[in-house]
């Protein structure tokens, strides 16, 4: 069992969290000009890096979305912080 650090609650077991998105992914705009292929790529095509990853996670216990930087190989979490502009 891996431990993830929620910036609001502190260290918690990974089953309390849900992956939300890759960090920095930009929603295609304007919506009326976005093709089905572009929209599908935005929703479903993820980088899934082998190593360092910056991701948005959701802690189900407190309802907080936050940014986590972790290594997908070593499972080492190097950063966990609130999203810019978000409040707990
Ligand atoms: Zn939390």
Q: Quick one: CATH class of the domain at 3-24 and 50-82? A: Alpha Beta
Low-confidence parts, pLDDT < 50 over ≥5 residues? none
Helix-strand pattern, N to C?
Answer: EEEHEEE
Secondary-structure class: mainly beta
* CATH architecture name of the domain at 3-24 and 50-82: 2-Layer Sandwich
Cα-based radius of gyration, to the nearest Å: 14 Å
CATH homologous superfamily classification of the domain at 3-24 and 50-82:
Folate-binding superfamily
The count of β-strands is 6
Strands across the major sheet, in which order?
3-4-5-6
Strand composition percent: 35-45%
Chain-wise SSE layout:
Layout lengths: L2 E4 L3 E4 L3 E6 L13 H9 L7 E8 L4 E8 L5 E6 L6
Antiparallel strand pairs: 1-2, 3-4, 4-5, 5-6
The protein binds zinc ion (ZN).
The site of zinc ion has 7 residues, from loops.
């Amino acid at each position: 069992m891996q431990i993830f650090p929620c910036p609001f609650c502190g260290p918690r077991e990974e089953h309390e969290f849900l992956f939300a998105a890759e960090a920095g992914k930009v929603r295609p705009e304007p919506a009326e000009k976005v093709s089905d292929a572009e929209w599908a790529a935005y929703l479903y095509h993820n980088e899934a890096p082998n190593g360092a990853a910056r991701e948005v996670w959701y802690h189900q216990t407190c309802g907080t979305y936050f940014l986590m930087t972790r290594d997908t190989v070593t499972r080492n979490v190097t950063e966990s912080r609130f999203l810019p502009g978000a409040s707990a």
